[in-house]
Amino acid sequence: MSRRTCGLTLRGLACALLAWQVWLVWHLSTYGVATVGWACDSDGCGSDQLAVVAPEIGIASAVLLGCLAARFLHGATAGAVIALSAGGAAAGWYDAVADGRVGYGTVTDFMLVVPAGRHTVSGWLAFSWSVAAFSWSVAAAGCFVAVWGGAVSLRRTAALRRLRGDFTTAQARLEGWRPVRGRRGEVTVVFHDTRGARHSVPVVVDRAALDRPVLAVYDRARPADPGRTRVAVPRRRPLRPS
């Protein structure tokens, strides 16, 4: 296993464990809030029960989860993490009702760093599900943007074609430009195949490829076939020899 693969695997495992922690902490924050025992004196009131500080721990855990999961979720990270937190809180309310700790009409306080208000359990549930629904909408929009970006990246880098055994790549340069539609135009890609033969093949590329180092992705058996030749724009610029 390569170092990169090992790193991604460990990050994924950490994300899974942290997501479980986020769910449990937010679940505890609502499940135990109605039965917290408070001790009061002249300086104020306090409690040594974990449910009192669970929201703060939940926020910190959610932020950490977002930082770790951004590598996988990209634009959907914030929405997914907030929805997970809201779902855990809602599940805590439901379990508290099921265990007889509170009723749907019970009025209770809830702390989110500062007092968030005093409402019925039904009101808190409605709030939790509203936050979850909005967050999932944001996450879905982020997923769409990420998928769209991934599709564009696959097309620009010709990644799928490069995986096929009958195709190979060569350093290339682009000549000419004839607009076709939008930001795409026809150019001539010039490259040398594995046998050293020079080829000039017409292809259609994005305008962004004109000022970038490019690769010609061609069929080993038919290197001069325009229908089998593509231009790939590597995600990283190749290092120039010193």
Topology:
Blueprint: H1 3-31, E1 39-41, E2 44-46, H2 50-73, H3 77-98, E3 107-112, E4 114-120, H4 121-157, H5 159-163, E5 167-181, E6 184-192, E7 198-206, E8 214-219, E9 230-232
Antiparallel strand pairs: 1-2, 3-4, 5-6, 5-8, 6-7, 8-9
Transmembrane segments: 12-29, 49-69, 76-94, 133-154
Keywords: Membrane, Transmembrane, Transmembrane helix
What does this structure look like?
With 242 residues, the protein is of the alpha+beta class. The protein folds into 2 domains: 3-36 and 47-156, no CATH class; 159-232. The chain has 5 helices and 9 strands. α1 packs antiparallel against α2 (50-73), α1 (3-31) runs parallel beside α3 and α3 runs antiparallel to α4. It is elongated. The two termini are 32 Å apart. The chain crosses the membrane at residues 12-29, 49-69, 76-94, 133-154. Keywords: Membrane, Transmembrane, Transmembrane helix.
